[in-house]
Amino acid sequence: MSEISFIKMHGLGNDFVVVDARGGDVALDSARVRAIAERRLGVGCDQLLEICPPRSAKADAFMRIWNADGGEVEACGNGARCVAAFLMTESGETEVAIETVAGLLNAEAAGDGRVAVDMGEARTLWDEIPLASEMDTLELDLSLGRLSAPVAVNIGNPHAVFFVDAAEEVDLASLGSELEAHALFPERANIGVAEVVNDGHIRLRVWERGVGLTKACGTGACAALVAAARRGLTARSATVTLDGGPLEIDWLEDNHVRMTGPVATSFMGMLL
């Protein structure tokens, strides 16, 4: 098994092992990713981000996203900010384009150690989420415990957002895994519990599919803002405060969602 150099990064505590695979000498699979992500015996991370050569002339790099359970996913907002910061530091540029399975993400430096990413269009049709059957995505026929009638949004990956009076009081650690794997979600789903503080502020906690509870989820923050705005609970721009801190989310008039937040590098190392 070859040695692999890595950088440990995070966005508001949503942590990543970032591997530059553009040299072509990196061999990753589900088993190895699970071992790396294991917090006691490996490096530990929510996701492993593999930077690959671009697949189109419009991009600077392609980003593969591996969850801690070894599965690949389509999008990761905090991860996109971290990879964008890595690439901009390397090139000296202030803008970068990153390809993912979900599409092209354009990112730019936003000052004070922050990065802004255009996460693409918010998708709200039932077959875009996707759901197992046709229904109104503004109020899904789904409930568990004190949670009911979430809003479904796809921000490169599927989200179900439950609105609650007090996000801190929801036992998401107990409810998350069952909701994630509900039959309504053929590709599983990320589960958010959102408390609307005012029309410009949302308190959010997220259970990420294939990971569990995380300190922050960028696509989850985007989904929460879109869901709240669709229900008329907030404006189209708001601060979304997660366990790890705040992100600024804007649902633009062209249906794209822009996310702005900090990135940080923790340490560098070598995987044996």
Q: What is the CATH H-level superfamily of the largest domain?
A: Diaminopimelate Epimerase, Chain A, domain 1
N-to-C order of helices and strands: EEHEEEHEEEEEEEHEEEHEEEE
How far apart the termini lie comes to: 7 Å
Sheet with the most strands?
A: 17 strands, mixed
How many individual domains?
Answer: 2
β-strand amount = 35-45%
What's the CATH C level of the largest domain?
Alpha Beta
Number of strands: 19
Low-pLDDT residue intervals, each spanning 5 or more residues: none
Q: Quick one: overall form?
A: globular
Number of separate helices: 4
In CATH, the topology of the largest domain is named Diaminopimelate Epimerase, Chain A, domain 1
**Measured on Cα atoms, how large is the radius of gyration?**
18 Å
Helix content: 10-25%
CATH hierarchy: architecture of the largest domain: Roll
Question: Helices and strands in order, then pairings?
Answer:
Blueprint: E1 4-11, E2 14-20, H1 30-37, E3 47-52, E4 61-67, E5 72-73, H2 77-91, E6 95-100, E7 103-111, E8 114-121, E9 143-144, E10 147-148, E11 151-154, E12 158-163, H3 172-180, E13 190-198, E14 201-208, E15 212-214, H4 218-230, E16 237-242, E17 245-251, E18 256-262, E19 264-271
Parallel strand pairs: 2-3, 4-6, 12-13, 14-16
Antiparallel strand pairs: 1-2, 1-19, 3-4, 4-5, 6-7, 7-8, 8-18, 9-10, 11-12, 13-14, 14-15, 16-17, 17-18
